[in-house]
């Protein structure tokens, strides 16, 4: 068996320990005589799995009792519609557009009501986070929406926007559980798990209870109502059962690693190795304004497309895979999520140094 260093933006690297444990339990989960993917989601055994997963997530993020945790399907993209359908009481919401995912959410919201672009960084290819300390926010918006970590462009809010009292909704897909968060600052925190937590197919929604109401937009499908899932503890229909089981294992791994403060320290250390190298390199450059740099997704370029392609090709051959930048921006991107070991980043930097010397 040989494992590569996988820098994919998502689906992405998972802790090896978790994968091994899942492999050991594949045929017979804890004496049940069956795999978790073969068991009823209403069985006692599965009930323990999903309840423990929720409790471990609550412990990790310090989620207050007046927030529900929902394990849903449809990916992060389904939330682009579910959020306006459930939250747009005045049919008006503010969006801060800092990348393609935020833009897609903004465009989707426009189907259901008035989506107002409060700020954008599109003028400079989304390479920074706009100043959100004093935005012009209409009084009657139902919420202010952000994408907290921009997976494609490698930017991250270091400070949350001043929403002037409005509910904050955040897509945290690519920074989920990478550092501690103050849940009370948000109305909704959600993310697809395939970036930093588990296998694709699960989206986690953490939502303040007062935002869960019967009062959804007319025509909202039952499956897209937060209330139906909250009232049924994520078991209204068959949930993505196996995916939730793996997420639960990752939560336990994170607890064992020391929780989110320890993860933040580790992630800062890893990102620093790469950014420090980029800042002194004569060949490679980071593409993001330094103060807005993400700890999770690190885009960089050589400034020469042919050289970029050569780098990606040689890196792949050397066991550093999925370094090609998003198809819309080109260049390279190293995603260094929680499960990427420090050693992986160190070895990548060594490889980049060698490439730089050979191609000077
Ligand atoms: C990947 C990603 C999405 C889309 O996720 P899907 O689960 O494929 O719908 C949305 N937002 C962010 C920030 C992402 O990184």
Give the biggest sheet: 7 strands, mixed
| Inertia-based shape | globular
Helix content: 25-40%
Beta-strand percent range: 15-25%
The poorly predicted ranges are none
Q: For this structure, what is the CATH class of the largest domain?
A: Alpha Beta
Under CATH, the homologous superfamily of the largest domain reads Type I PLP-dependent aspartate aminotransferase-like (Major domain)
What does this structure look like?
The protein has helices spanning 16-24, 44-61, 75-87, 100-112, 226-231, 241-256, 259-280, 305-317, 342-358; strands spanning 5-6, 67-72, 92-97, 114-120, 144-147, 149-150, 155-156, 168-171, 188-192, 203-208, 285-286, 297-301, 320-321, 332-335. It is α/β, with parallel strands linked by helices and 360 residues long. It has a 7-stranded mixed beta sheet with strand order 2-10-9-8-5-3-4. Helix 1 packs across helix 6 (241-256), helix 3 (75-87) packs parallel to helix 4 (100-112) and helix 7 (259-280) packs parallel to helix 9. It has 9 helices and 14 strands. The chain folds into 2 domains: 17-256, Type I PLP-dependent aspartate aminotransferase-like (Major domain) (Aspartate Aminotransferase, domain 2); 259-359, Aspartate Aminotransferase, domain 1 (Alpha-Beta Complex), CATH 3.90.1150. Bound molecules: pyridoxal-5'-phosphate. Pyridoxal-5'-phosphate (PLP) binds at residues 10, 75-77, 101, 147, 151, 171, 173-174, 192, 195.
């Amino acid at each position: 068996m040989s494992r590569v260093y996988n820098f994919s933006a998502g689906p992405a690297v998972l802790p090896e320990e978790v994968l091994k444990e899942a492999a050991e339990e594949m045929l017979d989960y804890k004496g049940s005589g069956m795999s978790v993917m073969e068991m009823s989601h209403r069985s006692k055994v599965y009930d323990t799995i999903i309840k423990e997963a929720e409790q471990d997530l609550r412990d990790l993020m310090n989620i207050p009792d007046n927030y529900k945790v929902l394990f849903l399907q449809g990916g992060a993209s389904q939330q682009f519609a579910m959020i306006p359908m459930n939250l747009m009481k005045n049919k008006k919401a503010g969006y801060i557009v800092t990348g393609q995912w935020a833009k897609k959410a903004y465009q989707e919201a426009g189907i259901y009501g008035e989506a107002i672009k409060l700020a954008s960084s599109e003028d400079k290819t989304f390479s920074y986070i706009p100043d959100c300390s004093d935005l012009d926010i209409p009084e009657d918006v139902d919420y202010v929406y952000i994408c907290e970590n921009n997976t494609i462009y490698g930017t991250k809010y270091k400070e949350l926007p001043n929403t002037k009292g409005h509910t904050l909704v955040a897509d945290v897909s690519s920074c989920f559980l990478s550092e501690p968060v103050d849940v009370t600052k948000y109305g909704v925190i959600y993310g697809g798990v395939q970036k930093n937590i588990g296998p694709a197919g699960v989206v986690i929604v953490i939502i303040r209870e007062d935002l869960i109401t019967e009062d959804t937009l007319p025509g909202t499908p039952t499956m897209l109502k937060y209330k139906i899932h909250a009232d049924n503890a994520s078991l209204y229909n068959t949930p993505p059962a196996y995916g939730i089981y793996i997420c639960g294992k990752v939560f336990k791994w994170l607890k064992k690693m020391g929780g989110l403060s320890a993860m933040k320290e580790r992630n800062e250390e890893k990102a620093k190795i790469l950014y420090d190298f980029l800042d002194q390199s004569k060949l490679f450059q980071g593409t993001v304004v330094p103060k807005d740099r993400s700890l999770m997704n690190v885009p960089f370029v050589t400034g020469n497309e042919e050289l970029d392609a050569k780098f990606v090709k040689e890196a792949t051959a050397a066991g550093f895979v999925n370094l090609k930048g998003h198809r819309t921006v080109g260049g390279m991107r190293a995603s260094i999520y929680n499960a990427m070991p420090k050693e992986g980043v160190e070895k990548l930097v060594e490889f980049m140094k060698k490439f730089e010397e050979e191609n000077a």
